[in-house]
Amino acid sequence: MIDWMAFVTVALASLIAAGLLVTVFSLALRVGDGKGAVRRWGAVALFGLCVFIVLAGIFLIVPALHKPVGL
Amino acid sequence: MVVLVIALALIFDFTNGFHDTANAMATPIATGALKPKTAVALAAVLNLVGAFLSTEVAKTISGGLIHTEGDGAVAITPAMILAGLIGAILWNLITWLLGLPSSSSHALFGGLIGAAIVGAWSLDPIDGGVLVSKILIPAILAPLLAGVVSYLATKIAFGITKKRQRDSFKVGQVFTSSLVSLAHGTNDAQKTMGVITLTLIAAGLQPVDSGPQFWVIVACAVAIAAGTYSGGWRIIKTLGKDITDGIEPAQGFAAEASTTATILASSHLGFALSTTQVASGSVIGTGIGRKGASVRWKTAGRIGLGWLITIPASGAIAAFMALIARALWWGVILDAVIAAVAILAIYLLSRRGSVTAKHFHQPQPTAFVRPKKRRKKKKSRSRR
Q: Which of B56, B165, B260 sits opposite A30 (nearest CB)?
Protein backbone atom coordinates (compact mmCIF):
# COMPACT_ATOMS: atom_id res chain seq x y z
CA MET A 1 0.00 0.00 0.00
CA ILE A 2 2.75 2.39 0.92
CA ASP A 3 5.40 2.69 -1.72
CA TRP A 4 8.39 2.37 0.59
CA MET A 5 10.87 2.20 -2.25
CA ALA A 6 9.65 5.58 -3.48
CA PHE A 7 9.98 6.97 0.01
CA VAL A 8 13.53 5.69 0.39
CA THR A 9 14.44 7.20 -2.99
CA VAL A 10 12.95 10.52 -1.96
CA ALA A 11 14.74 10.39 1.39
CA LEU A 12 18.12 9.65 -0.19
CA ALA A 13 17.70 12.26 -2.91
CA SER A 14 16.74 14.94 -0.38
CA LEU A 15 19.64 14.02 1.89
CA ILE A 16 22.17 14.12 -0.91
CA ALA A 17 20.87 17.32 -2.52
CA ALA A 18 20.50 19.29 0.71
CA GLY A 19 23.77 17.98 2.09
CA LEU A 20 25.61 18.85 -1.10
CA LEU A 21 24.27 22.39 -1.30
CA VAL A 22 25.02 23.13 2.34
CA THR A 23 28.49 21.59 2.12
CA VAL A 24 29.45 23.51 -0.99
CA PHE A 25 28.09 26.81 0.31
CA SER A 26 29.79 26.34 3.68
CA LEU A 27 33.07 25.44 2.03
CA ALA A 28 32.78 28.52 -0.16
CA LEU A 29 32.34 30.69 2.93
CA ARG A 30 35.23 28.96 4.67
CA VAL A 31 37.58 29.19 1.72
CA GLY A 32 36.53 32.73 0.82
CA ASP A 33 37.37 34.01 4.28
CA GLY A 34 40.91 35.20 3.90
CA LYS A 35 43.30 36.65 1.40
CA GLY A 36 45.06 35.30 -1.65
CA ALA A 37 44.11 34.55 -5.24
CA VAL A 38 43.74 30.83 -4.61
CA ARG A 39 41.24 31.37 -1.85
CA ARG A 40 39.32 33.94 -3.85
CA TRP A 41 39.04 31.84 -6.99
CA GLY A 42 38.30 28.76 -4.95
CA ALA A 43 35.39 30.57 -3.33
CA VAL A 44 34.18 31.85 -6.68
CA ALA A 45 34.26 28.33 -8.10
CA LEU A 46 32.34 26.95 -5.12
CA PHE A 47 29.72 29.70 -5.28
CA GLY A 48 29.44 28.95 -8.98
CA LEU A 49 28.69 25.36 -8.08
CA CYS A 50 25.95 26.63 -5.72
CA VAL A 51 24.46 28.66 -8.55
CA PHE A 52 24.48 25.53 -10.67
CA ILE A 53 22.65 23.57 -7.96
CA VAL A 54 20.05 26.34 -7.64
CA LEU A 55 19.62 26.39 -11.43
CA ALA A 56 19.11 22.63 -11.30
CA GLY A 57 16.40 23.31 -8.71
CA ILE A 58 14.67 25.81 -11.00
CA PHE A 59 14.97 23.32 -13.84
CA LEU A 60 13.10 20.78 -11.72
CA ILE A 61 10.45 23.27 -10.57
CA VAL A 62 9.48 24.64 -13.98
CA PRO A 63 7.63 22.00 -16.02
CA ALA A 64 8.34 23.72 -19.33
CA LEU A 65 12.03 23.07 -18.76
CA HIS A 66 12.08 19.49 -17.56
CA LYS A 67 9.09 18.05 -19.41
CA PRO A 68 10.83 17.93 -22.82
CA VAL A 69 13.65 15.91 -21.26
CA GLY A 70 11.19 13.50 -19.74
CA LEU A 71 11.89 13.94 -16.04
CA MET B 1 -23.97 29.07 -8.62
CA VAL B 2 -20.94 28.79 -10.87
CA VAL B 3 -20.03 32.37 -10.04
CA LEU B 4 -20.31 31.59 -6.35
CA VAL B 5 -18.04 28.56 -6.63
CA ILE B 6 -15.46 30.54 -8.58
CA ALA B 7 -15.54 33.33 -6.01
CA LEU B 8 -15.08 30.86 -3.17
CA ALA B 9 -12.31 29.07 -5.04
CA LEU B 10 -10.47 32.35 -5.40
CA ILE B 11 -10.97 33.10 -1.70
CA PHE B 12 -9.54 29.67 -0.94
CA ASP B 13 -6.60 30.48 -3.19
CA PHE B 14 -6.06 33.68 -1.24
CA THR B 15 -6.10 31.89 2.13
CA ASN B 16 -3.80 29.27 0.65
CA GLY B 17 -1.36 32.02 -0.27
CA PHE B 18 -1.23 33.71 3.08
CA HIS B 19 -1.26 30.46 4.97
CA ASP B 20 1.80 29.24 3.13
CA THR B 21 3.93 32.38 3.02
CA ALA B 22 5.47 31.07 6.22
CA ASN B 23 6.81 27.92 4.58
CA ALA B 24 9.29 29.87 2.52
CA MET B 25 9.68 33.12 4.35
CA ALA B 26 9.51 32.36 8.08
CA THR B 27 13.21 31.58 8.42
CA PRO B 28 14.66 34.44 6.33
CA ILE B 29 12.45 36.84 8.27
CA ALA B 30 13.50 35.28 11.57
CA THR B 31 17.22 35.61 10.79
CA GLY B 32 16.88 39.06 9.28
CA ALA B 33 18.09 37.90 5.87
CA LEU B 34 15.13 39.70 4.37
CA LYS B 35 13.00 42.47 5.80
CA PRO B 36 9.48 41.19 6.51
CA LYS B 37 7.80 43.29 3.83
CA THR B 38 10.50 42.54 1.27
CA ALA B 39 10.20 38.84 2.02
CA VAL B 40 6.46 38.66 1.47
CA ALA B 41 6.73 40.82 -1.66
CA LEU B 42 9.38 38.48 -3.06
CA ALA B 43 7.26 35.46 -2.18
CA ALA B 44 4.22 37.05 -3.81
CA VAL B 45 6.05 37.76 -7.06
CA LEU B 46 7.50 34.25 -7.17
CA ASN B 47 4.08 32.73 -6.51
CA LEU B 48 2.64 34.84 -9.31
CA VAL B 49 5.39 33.74 -11.69
CA GLY B 50 5.10 30.14 -10.52
CA ALA B 51 1.36 30.07 -11.22
CA PHE B 52 1.99 31.02 -14.85
CA LEU B 53 4.86 28.61 -15.29
CA SER B 54 2.81 25.53 -14.76
CA THR B 55 -0.69 25.17 -16.12
CA GLU B 56 -0.97 21.47 -15.87
CA VAL B 57 -4.30 20.93 -14.19
CA ALA B 58 -4.40 18.29 -11.56
CA LYS B 59 -7.12 16.25 -13.21
CA THR B 60 -8.17 14.51 -10.07
CA ILE B 61 -8.25 17.25 -7.50
CA SER B 62 -9.35 14.73 -4.97
CA GLY B 63 -6.21 12.70 -5.69
CA GLY B 64 -8.13 9.45 -6.02
CA LEU B 65 -9.58 9.87 -2.55
CA ILE B 66 -13.13 10.05 -3.77
CA HIS B 67 -14.49 7.40 -6.10
CA THR B 68 -16.07 9.07 -9.07
CA GLU B 69 -16.42 5.85 -11.02
CA GLY B 70 -17.27 2.27 -10.21
CA ASP B 71 -18.68 0.95 -6.93
CA GLY B 72 -19.90 3.46 -4.40
CA ALA B 73 -19.24 6.24 -6.84
CA VAL B 74 -20.56 9.70 -6.34
CA ALA B 75 -20.82 12.42 -8.95
CA ILE B 76 -19.18 15.60 -7.78
CA THR B 77 -21.69 18.41 -8.11
CA PRO B 78 -20.97 22.15 -7.94
CA ALA B 79 -22.88 22.23 -4.62
CA MET B 80 -20.43 19.70 -3.17
CA ILE B 81 -17.43 21.64 -4.43
CA LEU B 82 -18.95 24.74 -2.86
CA ALA B 83 -19.41 23.02 0.51
CA GLY B 84 -15.90 21.59 0.32
CA LEU B 85 -14.42 24.98 -0.43
CA ILE B 86 -16.24 26.60 2.48
CA GLY B 87 -14.91 23.91 4.80
CA ALA B 88 -11.37 24.41 3.52
CA ILE B 89 -11.51 28.22 3.73
CA LEU B 90 -12.92 28.25 7.26
CA TRP B 91 -10.40 25.70 8.49
CA ASN B 92 -7.55 27.65 6.91
CA LEU B 93 -8.74 30.78 8.67
CA ILE B 94 -9.19 29.05 12.02
CA THR B 95 -5.69 27.55 11.92
CA TRP B 96 -4.33 30.94 10.85
CA LEU B 97 -6.04 32.53 13.84
CA LEU B 98 -4.32 29.98 16.06
CA GLY B 99 -1.05 30.49 14.20
CA LEU B 100 -0.84 26.84 13.18
CA PRO B 101 0.95 25.94 9.97
CA SER B 102 -1.37 23.32 8.48
CA SER B 103 -1.61 21.97 4.98
CA SER B 104 -4.00 23.86 2.72
CA SER B 105 -4.22 20.87 0.41
CA HIS B 106 -5.35 18.68 3.25
CA ALA B 107 -7.98 21.24 4.15
CA LEU B 108 -9.23 21.11 0.57
CA PHE B 109 -9.18 17.29 0.48
CA GLY B 110 -10.94 17.16 3.84
CA GLY B 111 -13.61 19.56 2.66
CA LEU B 112 -14.28 17.58 -0.51
CA ILE B 113 -14.36 14.31 1.45
CA GLY B 114 -16.87 15.72 3.92
CA ALA B 115 -19.07 17.01 1.13
CA ALA B 116 -18.83 13.71 -0.77
CA ILE B 117 -19.88 11.70 2.29
CA VAL B 118 -23.01 13.80 2.65
CA GLY B 119 -23.58 13.76 -1.09
CA ALA B 120 -23.60 9.95 -1.14
CA TRP B 121 -25.13 9.46 2.33
CA SER B 122 -22.48 6.85 3.05
CA LEU B 123 -18.78 6.33 3.55
CA ASP B 124 -18.58 4.33 0.31
CA PRO B 125 -17.11 7.02 -1.92
CA ILE B 126 -14.08 7.41 0.31
CA ASP B 127 -11.10 5.23 -0.34
CA GLY B 128 -9.77 4.54 3.12
CA GLY B 129 -6.59 2.92 1.85
CA VAL B 130 -5.71 5.97 -0.20
CA LEU B 131 -6.51 8.17 2.77
CA VAL B 132 -4.00 6.32 4.92
CA SER B 133 -1.27 5.91 2.32
CA LYS B 134 -1.55 9.34 0.73
CA ILE B 135 -2.34 11.51 3.74
CA LEU B 136 -1.78 9.91 7.13
CA ILE B 137 1.55 8.13 6.61
CA PRO B 138 3.12 11.04 4.67
CA ALA B 139 2.00 13.37 7.46
CA ILE B 140 4.24 11.42 9.81
CA LEU B 141 7.07 10.81 7.35
CA ALA B 142 7.31 14.35 5.92
CA PRO B 143 8.38 16.19 9.08
CA LEU B 144 10.50 13.22 10.14
CA LEU B 145 12.44 13.12 6.88
CA ALA B 146 12.75 16.90 6.60
CA GLY B 147 13.81 17.01 10.24
CA VAL B 148 16.59 14.48 9.73
CA VAL B 149 17.82 16.13 6.52
CA SER B 150 17.73 19.55 8.12
CA TYR B 151 19.47 18.27 11.28
CA LEU B 152 22.34 16.87 9.23
CA ALA B 153 22.52 19.97 7.02
CA THR B 154 22.75 22.15 10.11
CA LYS B 155 25.53 19.98 11.53
CA ILE B 156 27.43 20.23 8.24
CA ALA B 157 27.02 24.00 8.05
CA PHE B 158 28.17 24.53 11.61
CA GLY B 159 30.97 22.00 11.28
CA ILE B 160 32.56 23.57 8.23
CA THR B 161 32.22 27.28 8.89
CA LYS B 162 33.58 29.40 11.67
CA LYS B 163 31.38 31.74 13.59
CA ARG B 164 32.39 34.97 11.89
CA GLN B 165 31.79 33.47 8.45
CA ARG B 166 28.24 32.46 9.16
CA ASP B 167 26.56 35.79 8.60
CA SER B 168 26.97 35.34 4.85
CA PHE B 169 24.49 32.49 4.96
CA LYS B 170 21.89 35.26 4.78
CA VAL B 171 22.72 35.78 1.11
CA GLY B 172 22.20 32.10 0.43
CA GLN B 173 18.93 32.16 2.34
CA VAL B 174 17.44 34.60 -0.15
CA PHE B 175 17.96 32.07 -2.92
CA THR B 176 16.86 28.96 -1.07
CA SER B 177 13.69 30.60 0.24
CA SER B 178 12.95 31.89 -3.25
CA LEU B 179 13.11 28.36 -4.57
CA VAL B 180 10.57 27.24 -1.97
CA SER B 181 8.26 30.08 -2.99
CA LEU B 182 8.55 29.29 -6.68
CA ALA B 183 7.85 25.62 -6.10
CA HIS B 184 4.83 26.60 -4.04
CA GLY B 185 3.47 28.81 -6.81
CA THR B 186 3.77 26.10 -9.44
CA ASN B 187 1.93 23.61 -7.23
CA ASP B 188 -0.69 25.37 -5.20
CA ALA B 189 -2.25 27.75 -7.67
CA GLN B 190 -2.90 24.65 -9.79
CA LYS B 191 -5.32 23.26 -7.25
CA THR B 192 -7.62 26.24 -7.50
CA MET B 193 -7.31 26.33 -11.28
CA GLY B 194 -8.31 22.69 -11.23
CA VAL B 195 -11.34 23.33 -9.03
CA ILE B 196 -12.57 26.21 -11.20
CA THR B 197 -11.97 24.29 -14.42
CA LEU B 198 -13.82 21.28 -13.01
CA THR B 199 -16.75 23.51 -12.13
CA LEU B 200 -16.83 25.11 -15.56
CA ILE B 201 -16.73 21.69 -17.19
CA ALA B 202 -19.47 20.38 -14.90
CA ALA B 203 -21.61 23.39 -15.76
CA GLY B 204 -21.07 22.73 -19.47
CA LEU B 205 -19.34 26.06 -20.04
CA GLN B 206 -16.13 24.44 -21.20
CA PRO B 207 -15.40 21.28 -23.20
CA VAL B 208 -14.42 18.18 -21.27
CA ASP B 209 -10.68 17.47 -21.01
CA SER B 210 -9.66 21.01 -21.81
CA GLY B 211 -7.13 23.00 -19.84
CA PRO B 212 -7.81 26.05 -17.73
CA GLN B 213 -8.80 29.17 -19.58
CA PHE B 214 -6.48 32.11 -19.55
CA TRP B 215 -8.59 34.30 -17.27
CA VAL B 216 -8.74 31.45 -14.76
CA ILE B 217 -4.94 31.25 -14.71
CA VAL B 218 -4.63 35.01 -14.27
CA ALA B 219 -7.26 35.13 -11.53
CA CYS B 220 -5.70 32.27 -9.59
CA ALA B 221 -2.19 33.66 -9.94
CA VAL B 222 -3.30 37.07 -8.70
CA ALA B 223 -5.33 35.61 -5.84
CA ILE B 224 -2.48 33.47 -4.53
CA ALA B 225 0.02 36.30 -4.91
CA ALA B 226 -2.26 38.75 -3.10
CA GLY B 227 -2.74 36.21 -0.33
CA THR B 228 1.00 35.67 -0.08
CA TYR B 229 1.67 39.39 0.06
CA SER B 230 -0.87 39.97 2.81
CA GLY B 231 1.38 37.70 4.83
CA GLY B 232 0.13 35.21 7.38
CA TRP B 233 2.19 36.86 10.10
CA ARG B 234 0.79 34.64 12.82
CA ILE B 235 2.05 31.50 11.14
CA ILE B 236 5.35 33.15 10.23
CA LYS B 237 5.79 33.93 13.91
CA THR B 238 5.03 30.33 14.94
CA LEU B 239 7.40 28.83 12.39
CA GLY B 240 10.15 31.42 12.60
CA LYS B 241 10.18 32.28 16.29
CA ASP B 242 8.11 29.94 18.41
CA ILE B 243 9.28 26.46 17.46
CA THR B 244 12.93 27.12 18.15
CA ASP B 245 14.46 30.29 19.45
CA GLY B 246 17.00 32.49 17.79
CA ILE B 247 17.37 30.89 14.38
CA GLU B 248 20.77 31.80 12.97
CA PRO B 249 21.41 32.41 9.26
CA ALA B 250 23.28 29.13 8.93
CA GLN B 251 20.31 27.29 10.43
CA GLY B 252 17.91 29.12 8.16
CA PHE B 253 19.97 28.23 5.12
CA ALA B 254 20.21 24.60 6.16
CA ALA B 255 16.47 24.38 6.87
CA GLU B 256 15.50 25.98 3.57
CA ALA B 257 17.93 23.88 1.57
CA SER B 258 16.39 20.80 3.20
CA THR B 259 12.84 22.00 2.53
CA THR B 260 13.61 22.69 -1.13
CA ALA B 261 15.45 19.42 -1.65
CA THR B 262 12.76 17.35 0.05
CA ILE B 263 9.89 19.00 -1.82
CA LEU B 264 11.60 18.71 -5.19
CA ALA B 265 12.52 15.09 -4.55
CA SER B 266 8.99 14.28 -3.45
CA SER B 267 7.35 15.93 -6.43
CA HIS B 268 9.68 14.22 -8.92
CA LEU B 269 10.17 10.80 -7.43
CA GLY B 270 6.55 10.07 -6.68
CA PHE B 271 6.08 10.23 -2.95
CA ALA B 272 3.85 13.23 -2.34
CA LEU B 273 4.66 15.25 0.76
CA SER B 274 2.98 18.38 2.06
CA THR B 275 5.08 21.55 1.76
CA THR B 276 3.87 22.84 5.10
CA GLN B 277 4.80 19.65 6.90
CA VAL B 278 8.21 19.51 5.26
CA ALA B 279 8.93 23.14 6.16
CA SER B 280 7.85 22.64 9.77
CA GLY B 281 9.98 19.50 10.05
CA SER B 282 12.99 21.37 8.70
CA VAL B 283 12.69 24.09 11.32
CA ILE B 284 12.43 21.50 14.10
CA GLY B 285 15.42 19.61 12.67
CA THR B 286 17.60 22.68 12.57
CA GLY B 287 16.54 23.50 16.12
CA ILE B 288 17.85 20.13 17.28
CA GLY B 289 20.95 20.47 15.13
CA ARG B 290 22.45 23.61 16.59
CA LYS B 291 24.19 23.39 19.90
CA GLY B 292 22.49 25.54 22.47
CA ALA B 293 19.23 25.84 20.58
CA SER B 294 16.12 24.29 22.02
CA VAL B 295 12.94 23.11 20.40
CA ARG B 296 9.65 23.94 22.06
CA TRP B 297 8.02 20.57 21.78
CA LYS B 298 4.76 21.92 23.15
CA THR B 299 4.40 24.20 20.14
CA ALA B 300 5.51 21.38 17.83
CA GLY B 301 2.92 19.11 19.44
CA ARG B 302 0.18 21.65 18.90
CA ILE B 303 1.14 21.85 15.23
CA GLY B 304 1.10 18.06 14.94
CA LEU B 305 -2.33 17.91 16.53
CA GLY B 306 -3.47 20.53 14.03
CA TRP B 307 -2.35 18.28 11.18
CA LEU B 308 -4.23 15.31 12.59
CA ILE B 309 -7.52 17.14 12.84
CA THR B 310 -7.22 19.15 9.61
CA ILE B 311 -9.04 16.62 7.45
CA PRO B 312 -11.79 15.69 9.93
CA ALA B 313 -12.33 19.33 10.89
CA SER B 314 -12.60 20.82 7.42
CA GLY B 315 -14.54 17.71 6.43
CA ALA B 316 -17.03 18.28 9.24
CA ILE B 317 -17.57 21.91 8.29
CA ALA B 318 -18.00 20.94 4.64
CA ALA B 319 -20.37 18.11 5.55
CA PHE B 320 -22.51 20.50 7.54
CA MET B 321 -22.60 22.93 4.60
CA ALA B 322 -23.43 20.12 2.19
CA LEU B 323 -26.23 19.03 4.52
CA ILE B 324 -27.75 22.50 4.45
CA ALA B 325 -27.41 22.66 0.67
CA ARG B 326 -29.13 19.30 0.40
CA ALA B 327 -31.95 19.95 2.83
CA LEU B 328 -33.11 23.32 1.62
CA TRP B 329 -33.58 24.55 -1.89
CA TRP B 330 -32.06 27.89 -0.89
CA GLY B 331 -29.42 26.09 1.17
CA VAL B 332 -26.62 27.13 -1.15
CA ILE B 333 -27.38 30.77 -0.50
CA LEU B 334 -27.56 30.09 3.24
CA ASP B 335 -24.15 28.38 2.94
CA ALA B 336 -22.67 31.44 1.30
CA VAL B 337 -24.15 33.70 3.97
CA ILE B 338 -22.83 31.49 6.79
CA ALA B 339 -19.41 31.45 5.17
CA ALA B 340 -19.36 35.22 4.79
CA VAL B 341 -20.44 35.76 8.41
CA ALA B 342 -17.84 33.26 9.67
CA ILE B 343 -15.05 34.86 7.63
CA LEU B 344 -16.02 38.27 9.00
CA ALA B 345 -16.16 36.93 12.56
CA ILE B 346 -12.70 35.36 12.27
CA TYR B 347 -11.36 38.57 10.82
CA LEU B 348 -12.82 40.59 13.71
CA LEU B 349 -11.43 38.09 16.22
CA SER B 350 -8.02 38.40 14.63
CA ARG B 351 -8.05 42.15 15.20
CA ARG B 352 -7.67 41.51 18.89
CA GLY B 353 -4.00 40.92 19.43
CA SER B 354 -3.04 41.04 15.80
CA VAL B 355 0.39 40.00 14.60
CA THR B 356 1.85 42.17 11.85
CA ALA B 357 5.10 42.80 10.08
CA LYS B 358 6.13 45.06 12.95
CA HIS B 359 6.56 42.05 15.20
CA PHE B 360 9.56 40.99 13.23
CA HIS B 361 11.60 44.09 13.71
CA GLN B 362 15.24 43.13 13.52
CA PRO B 363 17.73 45.40 15.17
CA GLN B 364 20.35 46.20 12.58
CA PRO B 365 23.65 44.80 13.79
CA THR B 366 25.54 47.80 12.49
CA ALA B 367 23.51 50.10 14.69
CA PHE B 368 25.28 48.78 17.75
CA VAL B 369 28.80 49.54 18.79
CA ARG B 370 30.58 46.27 18.64
CA PRO B 371 33.23 45.76 21.25
CA LYS B 372 36.47 45.27 19.42
CA LYS B 373 37.67 42.15 21.06
CA ARG B 374 39.24 40.44 18.13
CA ARG B 375 42.34 42.50 17.75
CA LYS B 376 43.46 42.08 21.33
CA LYS B 377 43.46 38.33 21.55
CA LYS B 378 44.30 37.24 18.08
CA LYS B 379 45.47 33.78 18.96
CA SER B 380 42.47 32.62 20.88
CA ARG B 381 40.03 33.34 18.07
CA SER B 382 36.80 31.79 19.11
CA ARG B 383 35.95 28.77 17.08
CA ARG B 384 32.26 28.68 17.66
A: B165
